Task: structure prediction
Amino acid sequence: MPLSDEQKKLRREIYQRLDDNALEPGDSLYVPIYGQPGCEDPVRLLQDHIELSAEQSFQLFSGFRGSGKTTELLRLKQRLEKEGFLVLYADALDYVNPSEPIDVSDFLIVLGGAFGDALLAEPVFKEHQIKLAGGSYWQRITEFLGSIRVNAEEATLKSAVTGPLSAGVDLKLELKTSPTFRQNVQRFLASRIGELRNEAHRFFEDGVKAVRQFYDEDKQVVFIFDSFDQLRGSLSNEREVLQSVERLFANHLPAIKIPYVHCVFTVPPWFKFLKIGGGRLNILPSIRQWNNDPKRTRFNGGWDALRKFVEKRFGDAGYAQFFGEDTNAARTACEELVGVCGGDFRDLLRLLREVVLRADEWPATSQNLERAKLEVLSQFLPIALDDAVWLSRIAELRDCWYPSTESETISHLTRFFDLHFVLYLRNGEEWYDIHPLIREEVAAIVQKQRINGAREETAQPAS
Result:
């Protein structure tokens, strides 16, 4: 039967609740996935490391697209604040261009700027009009650039940097949007990284000092720098961008560790494969729905958590009407989608949105569910033969097998994870598998290649 006006309204509400947005702590839609039996809570590990450290620490946090990193970092912020920490949060994409290479000079500038902006935005700083020594970081770094003495050969380059700033150009905006200006800054500071580091560290120290003067001498500061993992580049410069991020953490780690602050930076997950970063690397896994055995036996904890995720998004009334009043039939229909999401929130949301879009009568039919699965599957296709062979090997070994650590190989592997072809899983040990939606497709491609190869070998004339 056609939907009633009330059901049409409910359908619209459900569809909007299926948006792929980070959830704030306390949001009614949040499901404590990592509180399920058998699930290790990555936020607890981050928090414990901070609480057990002295007055500073350095951790890296990662996860593949759609794994819920920002939601979990906001949960970390809330939990630490309850324990008395001052937690500053900044989104790297407000400060850097994810399509351009980054250098330690512009990274130190935007890192200090993001820290200062987050500090001055704190309600208590605004309410009591607390000032930082020497002004904001943007003011201090502008004065620092202007104070650098140069020889005649460097005068033109200095003018290209300080001239626009003296004319009122926004340093934060220029670094993000103007490649020419950013390159001039990098060239100007190339031989002065030590000076820049010292200036940045002095600002961090002054910021912490201001915090402790207002609160108390034992107040601990945490800085979460989110979304830095999203530096990817474009098809034309992806390798250059990835290499710039690698150099930053491999060669300049002492400069980017903030003194007297507990730092949590999000970084690309491929850091794990190159073993760079110099800090604890915490990777957010996909929700485990099966065990690491040949038959992939069902892990009920993961299924239960994801089904609760669906129930939250639909609401009690929406779930019953959409999937059916019969409890067992509704569970079966829901699990048709849960079973092929790969334990990934983003893919599950895509599946749900597609089926809601297609179900113009309730409860949803098996045809609606199948069409939704085919639509999401189509976004994985086509799969190249070489990729299918590689993916088949990963599925067989349950290991992230890769032939070399060359940047091109790591970039290709990263794309597998970004596109959710490959899943990262944990149950004490870490392991990998391919997305359930593509298992049959990958197996079919590899089998066809083997059959064709055997035919060609049979057809060869005897020597």
Notes: Residues 10 and 318 are 7 Å apart (CA to CA). The beta strands are 57-63, 86-91, 221-226, 262-266, 280-284, 422-427, 429-434. The longest strand covers residues 57-63.
